[in-house]
Amino acid sequence: MLPKSLCTSDSLTKKLRAAAQHSFTVEIISERFIWLEPETFPALALTHAGQAWCREVYLKVDEVIWVQAKTIIPQSSLQHSAVEDLLGIDNQPLGEILFSDPQLTRSNFVVEQTTRSSVFLFHGQVILISETFLPIACDYFSQENYSS
């Protein structure tokens, strides 16, 4: 179960940077185009199969993996230049870019065990992000003295 402090709509990147004593880094696991699974269609407001860009990363605090994150951007969203630019961000945290957009909106979380998923509207285009929190992250954000 996720701590309540991880079920708020603010930036996870900011929270992880604040938790770090020395460093917060992003390690890319994979970046590739995939065929969308039918179970993602409703979240992405799609009615038919298509391709999407998929980025999987580890979010590390002081060189320790705290979060495994997966981003799915449908091909149709990549038609917007600001969204297409996300394909070249390398090790930059996606959250830094998304939360810099004053028009950004985010859906409510769907939470299953220690994974949360939500849909962002970035420049009017849908992006699905799922984040799985490892025990070290859940423990840290469960602490009574943690305040977001």
Query: Which outline best applies?
Result: globular
**Secondary-structure-derived class:** alpha+beta
Order of helices and strands: HEEEHHEEEEH
Helix content: 10-25%
Taken together, the total number of domains comes to 1
State the fourth-level CATH superfamily: Chorismate lyase-like
Cα end-to-end separation: 18 Å
Tell me, what is the CATH class? Alpha Beta
- Per DSSP, what share of the residues sits in E-state strands of 2 or more residues? 35-45%
Largest sheet: 7 strands, antiparallel
The tally of helices reads 4
Mean pLDDT reading? 90
CATH architecture: 3-Layer(aba) Sandwich
Q: Give me the CATH fold name.
A: Chorismate lyase
Radius of gyration: 15 Å
Report the strand count.
7
Low-confidence stretches: none
Summarize the structure.
The protein is α+β, with helices and mostly antiparallel strands and 148 residues long.
Please tell me about this protein's structure:
The chain has helices at residues 12-19, 81-84, 94-98, 135-142; strands at 24-35, 51-61, 64-74, 105-106, 110-112, 115-122, 125-133. With 148 residues, the protein is α+β, with helices and mostly antiparallel strands. The protein has one domain (4-142): Chorismate lyase-like (Chorismate lyase, 3-Layer(aba) Sandwich). It starts with 11 loop residues before the first helix and ends in a 6-residue tail after the last helix. 25% of the residues are buried. The mean pLDDT is 90.
Task: List strands and helices in order, with pairings.
Blueprint: H1 12-19, E1 24-35, E2 51-61, E3 64-74, H2 81-84, H3 94-98, E4 105-106, E5 110-112, E6 115-122, E7 125-133, H4 135-142
Antiparallel strand pairs: 1-2, 2-3, 3-7, 4-6, 5-6, 6-7
